[in-house]
Every structure is written in C-alpha cells, then in structure tokens.
Design a protein that fits this description.
There is one protein chain. The chain is an alpha+beta fold. It has two domains: 138 residues, no CATH class; 356 residues, Rossmann fold (3-Layer(aba) Sandwich). It is built from 14 helices and 28 strands. Strands 11, 12, 13, 14, 16, 18, 19 and 22 form an eight-stranded mixed sheet that branches. β12, α8 and β13 form a beta-alpha-beta unit. α7 crosses α8 and α9 runs parallel beside α10. The N terminus is likely disordered. The structure holds 2-acetamido-2-deoxy-beta-D-glucopyranose (8 copies). The site of one 2-acetamido-2-deoxy-beta-D-glucopyranose (NAG) has 3 residues, from α5. One 2-acetamido-2-deoxy-beta-D-glucopyranose (NAG) binds next to β2.
Length: 569
C-alpha cells in the first residue's frame, strides 16, 4: 500500500475560478550557494519529469509535544509511562486550520490536489511535473549528478513561496537538501569466514568469541551482556527493523543462521514483511542485503520470542525516513522498538528537514516507542568515507529524541571501536538529561580537539555494544561484518526483552529511553575506558574513551540484569 493513500483526501472545495489570474508575491524561502561537493549540474530537469513535492506546514505546538514527551519519559515524572495516543500526538503537530486552508487554496488555484501524508496533517504531498514545480516555487529544478557514483537527482538551489504563506509553510522538500552521494548503510564487511562450525558455550569468553578470527554470535552477546535466552511471552511487544535502498533479508539465510547459532530456537522463526511507500519486497543484490540480514538475524536471534517486523521503505533516504516515521505514527499500536542502522552526515540535511524529522521521533517517543539509530562508522568524520576538516556529527544521532548506539571491539575487555562515530551536534543544543555526564567528559577532555567540535551541542552516542566480527549468513555463506549497525540490533533486542518483562508485569514499555538511561539506568552500563576513534584523515585520532560517558561509546555497554533492576523489575 502506498503510504499516502492511508490519509488521502482531495481538497475539492476550492475550485479554480475561471478567468481569474492569481498573482502571488514570492519570497525566497531556502537557498544554497552550490550543490554539495561531489555533485555537478547536468542540466535542466525534463519538464515532464514528475517530482513528488512534500510540503511541511507549520506545526502548532512543538513545545507542547516536547513537554508531553518529557513527562511520559522521565521516570521522576508523575505521568511516566502514560504514553499518548495517535490522536493526542497528532493534535500537537496539526497545523492551524488557517494554515491548511491557505495552502490548499494556493495549490487549488494551480489546479493541484494534495495528499495528506501524516496523521497530524502537517505534511502534504503533491506530484507535479518539474515545470509546474518551477512555477509553483519560483524554482529552477535541475538534474545533478554525483560524479563518484553516477547517482542522479533533481534538486533546486533555491525556491520561494508566496509571501502570505511564509507563516504557514515550514519548508518544501525535495528542494535544497541533496541525497547523500555515498549511501547510508554504515555496515561494513570484515572478512569471510571459512569456518562455519557453531561456537560452543564456555566460561572463557576470549576462547569463544571476539578474539582473532573467532566470530561473535548470539551466544557470545547473551554471555557478555547477560541477555536471557528464554522466550519472551508478551504478544503486544515488537521490534521494527527499518531498511532503505532495497535491502531485503533472506529467509533461507535466517533459517541457516538460527539452525547454526540458536539451536534452542525453532529455525522457522521469521519476521513480518512490510513494504512502505513502494519499498521492494525482493532483492537479488547480495551486497545490499548484508545490512538487512545482519539486522534481522540478530534481532530474531537475540530478542528471543519477540515479534520482528521488517520495514522495506522505498524512495530516496530523506523521504524514506519521513515515510517511515509517518507510517509508524499512523499505526494504532506502533512497535515499541524501532531499530535503524542507517544514517547520514548532519551537514548533508537541511536544518528545517532535520528538525522536522527529529520532531517526528519526538512524536514516536511520546507514543511509547524507543527510536534507536546507529551512530555512524566514520569516527569523528561522520559516515564512513567522508572527508573533514572539523568533526562531522551524524544524523539522526544528533537529535535528542533518538537513542544513538556506538560500537566496541575486543573481548573480554571491550575497547571503543575506531570506526564508532560520536561527537556533538551543530543543530541541537545539549539536552539537560545528559549535561552532568557530558560536562564530566568535557572536563577530562580539557584542550584536546579544541575548535574541532561544538561543545554546546547534543552529544552522542548514548550507549554502545559490541560491533565487530558478527557472524551472519548472507547468500548462503557465513560472513563476518562489523559496524555500529551491528550494535543496533543488540541494543534494540535488550530493550525489547526489557519491554517484554514490563508488559508481562502490566507496566508500560520504556518508550523514549534517554532520560532513564542517563538517570536510573546509568549504573547498568559498563563504562568503556580504552580506545579512540578515527579523525579526519587516516591514522589520526579523534576522541578517547574515558571513564563515565564519552563520545565514542556513550555511557558504555549494557548489562541486562542491572537494567531489569533499573527498570524496577
Ligand atoms: C536554470 O538551471 C539551468 C541548468 O539546469 C541553467 O542553464 C539556467 O540558466 C537556469 N535558469 C535560471 C533562470 O537561472
Ligand atoms: C581462554 O582462552 C584463550 C584462547 O583460547 C587461552 O589463551 C586462555 O588460556 C584461556 N583462559 C582460561 C582461563 O582458560
Ligand atoms: C515465558 O513462559 C514460559 C512458559 O511459562 C517460561 O518458561 C518463560 O520463562 C517465560 N519467559 C519469560 C521471559 O518470563
Ligand atoms: C527494486 O526492484 C527493482 C526490480 O525488481 C529493481 O530494478 C530496483 O533496482 C530495486 N530497487 C532498489 C532500490 O533496489
Ligand atoms: C531447520 O531445522 C530442521 C530440523 O528441525 C532441519 O531438518 C533443517 O535442515 C533446518 N534448516 C536449515 C536451513 O538448516
Ligand atoms: C532474483 O532471482 C530469482 C531466481 O534466483 C529470479 O526468479 C528473480 O527474477 C530475480 N529477481 C530480480 C529482480 O532480478
Ligand atoms: C553549535 O551548536 C549550537 C547548538 O547547540 C548551534 O546553535 C551553533 O550554531 C553550533 N555552532 C556551529 C559552528 O555550527
Ligand atoms: C587527550 O589527548 C591525549 C593524546 O594527545 C590522550 O592521550 C588523552 O587520552 C586525551 N584525553 C582525553 C580525555 O581525551
């Protein structure tokens, strides 16, 4: 089902007035000097090329949403755990009725009808030929080509909106935010394993996992983080694993994985597939599927008995992130954990779009959903393969309403993984829930890396988990993969198993985690105190892991039993 059909309405009541000429006074709304580095202008867009314009209307009460989010997510609040319904959340972001009618009238006078894309009615979508988009927005939509990858995209360097709509329209997308040229999946493949013999239980972790070429398996992770293997029992629980770009988990690989590494589980345990906005349902692209196989194999292999839904989301990444959030917000009961191993550099995404997406994560948090993202695999340079002169934070990890996960390596004494991204957002200021933890780090940091990072920004990651040499099956062969994307399903599984215990006890799910993580749960994480991450060019150093919170491994690695206690179980 295409997402926009869920909320489709036609604005039929503002018909064109025949013969009347509408002249609007345009005002420049967003502009950039040039395309981002890597992209070159290839020429004007074909006038018939269809562009799906998404119009973000001004949301009526974002401050109220954030207040509500804190009051249901802060364990010291009286309304902790009293998560909001779909309609309650929608009412905070619904635009003023004047905004909706003014924008509808503008579209109608141009002969256009919009779809409503979000439960709050704050996103409208309309498909238009590029020539119409140029007229509507006084823009110059052109084809830009990413030289390295050949990726082509239609964007404009500037656009305007009618002056009388500036109080009603937040921004229009896709316009000046370009897609990432180099992709969004941070997973990377370390090596292929020739040995496929299952790892045996042992009390000697260095003998069974993570050392040398020995792969990490669900059993190792259960062992090092005290993750239970008995099946969860709550039926209202769940994890949604999201994927972009057409990556699809393969059932045959999952079955082989479970047979090999979870012989105590039925090897026919599987996931529910959900396509969002035309996301592909099959893929023969073995390389692309690595991420999906990793995420699903470890979510199912660690969150024993928790229903897992795989969301294959179509479209360019930024649009797909919006569609993912709006799809989940449209559900009566969204899955309590959403795990995403994809991200982008913060500076690749316009501030307006980044804020809007972050508000969508705040909405999910208010609904009781833990939104979990990988911190990125390029050390302080952001996503892997990016160049930098100052440290580059990643998105959405810089959004204060998501939980960002970094990675560790080496057992039994875990160290920060060099690739694990972390740092300080340039878009969001430091939220108070982390100020004590982050101040303590900044005091230790002293003058190190001075001028390269934004000390006043939201700091990430929040937590970490082991992230190297995960053994998976891909295209019927064993493979070892590393990345913060490996740590994500591990953390997501732990949260889902905690939720199972809470639901069974008649309690609410954990929802937005961060106030709890930095509060009652901070002692449930083992601080990682060794290792440093990569800086802007090969071989240099970024941040160092330290006692307490640090910007490579956050609060540290989890202990399930201690988290149970911290959750009052
Ligand atoms: C619009 O962009 C095209 C390239 O796509 C360029 O040739 C043309 O001069 C631009 N038009 C204006 C009015 O800037
Ligand atoms: C644990 O295993 C490693 C690697 O096989 C071995 O070198 C070490 O002696 C073992 N330690 C113990 C206490 O058995
Ligand atoms: C779920 O129920 C089974 C059967 O009663 C039990 O063995 C198992 O421990 C339960 N799981 C949890 C997490 O309590
Ligand atoms: C989706 O599938 C179609 C054909 O099945 C393929 O051409 C296309 O490249 C796939 N899209 C992605 C993003 O992989
Ligand atoms: C799944 O388990 C059954 C036995 O329960 C076994 O016969 C089958 O080969 C297993 N499947 C795979 C793909 O290993
Ligand atoms: C994928 O492979 C299967 C058989 O291996 C084939 O039937 C199917 O058409 C292929 N799909 C695509 C999109 O290439
Ligand atoms: C640093 O972060 C703050 C938000 O905390 C932001 O206002 C400021 O613009 C950022 N500085 C830079 C140089 O981006
Ligand atoms: C500061 O940098 C030095 C290396 O120049 C390093 O040894 C030390 O651990 C760093 N301290 C912190 C807190 O990052």
């Amino acid at each position: 089902m295409r997402l926009h059909t869920l909320f489709s309405v036609l604005f039929g009541c503002y018909g064109l007035v025949s013969g009347r000429v509408f002249s609007r006074n345009f005002q420049l709304h967003e502009a950039r000097d040039a395309a981002p580095s890597g992209f070159v202008l290839s020429g004007p867009a074909d006038s018939d090329a269809t562009i799906r314009l998404r119009i973000a209307l001004v949301q009526n009460n974002v401050d109220g949403l954030v207040d509500a989010l804190y009051s249901v997510s802060d364990p010291t609040s009286e309304s902790y755990g009293q998560h909001l319904s779909r309609d309650e959340v929608a009412s905070f972001v619904a635009p003023a009725s004047e905004s909706t009618s003014a924008v509808q009238a503008w579209l109608n006078e141009n002969g256009l009808n919009a779809d409503v894309l979000s439960p709050g009615g704050d996103w409208l979508g309309v498909d238009v030929p590029s020539s119409t988009a140029n007229d509507l927005l006084s823009a110059n939509f052109s084809v830009f080509t990413h030289e390295q990858t050949g990726l082509q995209t239609i964007r404009t360097l500037a656009y305007s909106i009618p002056a009388e709509l500036t109080a009603h329209i937040d921004f229009v997308h896709p316009t000046t935010t370009f897609p990432s040229g180099t992709g969004h999946a941070p997973v990377f493949v370390s090596s292929t394993s020739t040995s496929t013999s299952p790892v045996q239980r042992s009390d000697n972790t260095s003998a069974v996992c993570g050392s040398g070429n020995m792969p990490v398996t669900p059993w190792c992770l259960q062992y090092i983080y005290n993750i239970p293997s008995d099946p969860a029992n709550s039926t209202s629980n769940g994890i949604a694993v999201t994927a972009y770009g057409g990556a699809i988990p393969q059932e045959s690989d999952l079955q082989r994985f479970l047979t090999e590494y979870r012989p105590d589980m039925s090897n026919s345990t599987t996931f529910t597939f959900q396509s969002v906005n035309g996301g592909n349902s099959t893929s023969n692209n073995s390389q692309l599927n690595v991420e999906a196989n990793l995420d699903v194999q470890y979510a199912i292999g660690l969150a024993t008995g928790v229903p897992v839904t795989f969301l294959s989301v179509g479209g360019e990444f930024d649009d797909a992130l919006l569609d993912t959030a709006n799809y989940l917000l449209s559900l009566e009961s969204p899955p309590p954990v959403v795990a995403t191993s994809y991200g982008d550099n913060e500076n690749a995404i316009s501030q307006k779009l980044a804020y809007n997406l972050c508000n969508a994560y705040a909405q999910l948090g208010a609904r009781g959903v833990s939104v979990i993202f990988a911190s990125g695999d390029g050390g302080v340079s952001g996503n892997k393969n990016s160049e930098c002169t100052t440290f580059v934070p990643t998105f959405p990890s810089g959004c204060p309403y998501v939980t960002s996960v970094g990675a560790t390596t080496l057992l039994p004494n875990e160290q920060a993984a060099a690739f694990s991204s972390g740092g300080f957002s340039n878009y969001w200021p430091q939220p108070s829930y982390q100020s004590a933890a982050v101040s303590a780090f900044l005091t230790q940091l002293g003058g190190n890396s001075s001028g390269l990072y934004n000390a006043s920004g939201r700091a990430f990651p929040d937590v970490a988990a082991y992230g190297t040499l995960y053994d998976i099956y891909n295209s019927r062969a064993a493979l070892e993969v590393s990345g913060t994307s490996a740590a994500v399903p591990t953390v997501a599984s732990i949260v889902a198993l905690l939720n199972d215990r809470l639901l069974t006890a008649g309690r609410a799910t954990l929802g937005w985690l961060n106030p709890w993580l930095y509060g009652a749960a901070s002692g449930a994480f083992a601080s990682v105190t060794a290792g440093n991450n990569l800086a802007c060019s090969g071989g240099t150093t970024g941040f160092y892991a330290t006692s307490g919170w640090d910007p490579i491994t956050g609060l540290g690695t989890p202990d399930f039993d201690k988290l149970l206690t911290a959750a009052g179980l």
